[in-house]
Design a protein that fits this description.
CATH superfamily of chain A: Fumarate reductase/succinate dehydrogenase, transmembrane subunit
Order of helices and strands of chain B: HHHH
Largest interface: A-B, 38 and 32 residues
Structural class of chain A: mainly alpha
CATH class of chain A: Mainly Alpha
Number of helices of chain B: 4
Number of strands of chain A: 0
Helix content of chain B: over 70%
CATH architecture of chain A: Up-down Bundle
Largest sheet of chain B: none
Number of domains of chain B: 1
Distance between the termini of chain B: 56 Å
CATH architecture of chain B: Up-down Bundle
Oligomer: heterodimer
Radius of gyration of chain A: 20 Å
Strand content of chain A: under 5%
Structural class of chain B: mainly alpha
Number of domains of chain A: 1
Shape of chain B: elongated
Radius of gyration of chain B: 19 Å
Number of helices of chain A: 5
Strand content of chain B: under 5%
CATH superfamily of chain B: Fumarate reductase/succinate dehydrogenase, transmembrane subunit
Shape of chain A: elongated
CATH topology of chain A: 3 helical TM bundles of succinate and fumarate reductases
Distance between the termini of chain A: 63 Å
Order of helices and strands of chain A: HHHHH
Helix content of chain A: over 70%
């Protein structure tokens, strides 16, 4: 197989031209998850307790709120990419794949938006 | 669907640590995506909703089944982190020699268990 002919691409035999992008973004978000995840782990360990007052006081700080918001952004994006690969590997019929990808996109965007909204609410002091 | 050639079927390979670390990377990552992220959202949503909602969350999270879920999420976290770091090394084209690959496959899985135990020891010791 050469670089792929036009008819070959139409038949799904050529390259999709976007494989490297997915692969790279999965690595970029992985680095974000690593740093921010460890930040969260150390916060859980070093906070004096995990009571409502302590945790809200901690998470509503500007740096902390930014870090947790970025953690939500990075993990949801990374999960979106990872679950996409799972679907592509195990769901083979076109209709089911479309349905699964739709459900995944809804889950990712709705979940991520809810997480970011919750942090914004805490950081801006509406809940306190 | 085009009849593409498939990867050699799983059953023709002899199981080794590299295969176990690979499937555990997928299981732990997708497990966290499907269970861990909803728990994260519940935690954040409860915090944003106020003390009563957070009390409900804490009540569930500190119950025996809540503890099972949280411990069951911490191991995937550390496992995915360790095998993910292994992937960064492999991405550079390093660590593919059979002995090296076996060593780091085992190493990442063992490190994940140690880190999980250390994390909970640190949490309960505080």
């Amino acid at each position: 197989m050469g670089n792929g002919t036009s008819i070959g691409k139409v038949r799904g035999l050529g390259i999709a031209q976007e494989g490297a992008h997915h692969w790279l973004v999965q690595r970029f978000t992985a680095i974000g998850n690593l740093l921010l995840g460890l930040y969260l782990v150390f916060a859980f360990i070093f906070l004096p307790d995990l009571s409502y007052t302590t945790v809200v006081g901690w998470i509503s700080g500007p740096v902390q709120a930014t870090a947790v918001a970025l953690f939500v952004f990075s993990t949801f994006w990374h999960a979106r990419l990872g679950l996409q690969v799972l679907i592509e590997d195990y769901v083979h019929s076109a209709g089911n794949k479309f349905a699964a990808m739709t459900a995944l996109n809804l889950f990712t965007f709705a979940g991520g938006a809810f997480g970011l909204f919750a942090i914004a609410r805490l950081a801006l002091g509406v809940a306190a | 669907m085009a009849a593409r050639p498939l990867s050699p079927h799983l059953s023709i390979w002899k199981w080794g640590p590299h295969m176990l670390v690979s499937i555990l990377h997928r299981v732990s990552g997708d497990g966290m995506a499907l269970v861990g992220l909803p728990v994260l959202l519940w935690w954040l949503g409860a915090l944003a909703s106020g003390p009563d909602a957070y009390a409900t969350f804490q009540e569930q999270a500190t119950s025996w089944y809540g503890t099972v879920v949280l411990v069951g999420l911490s191991w995937p976290f550390f496992n995915h982190m360790c095998s993910g770091l292994r992937h960064f090394v492999l991405d550079m084209g390093a660590g593919f020699e059979l002995d090296t690959n076996r060593t780091w496959s085992m190493g990442s899985m063992i490190a994940a268990v140690i880190l999980t135990v250390a994390f909970w020891a640190a949490i309960f010791q505080a």
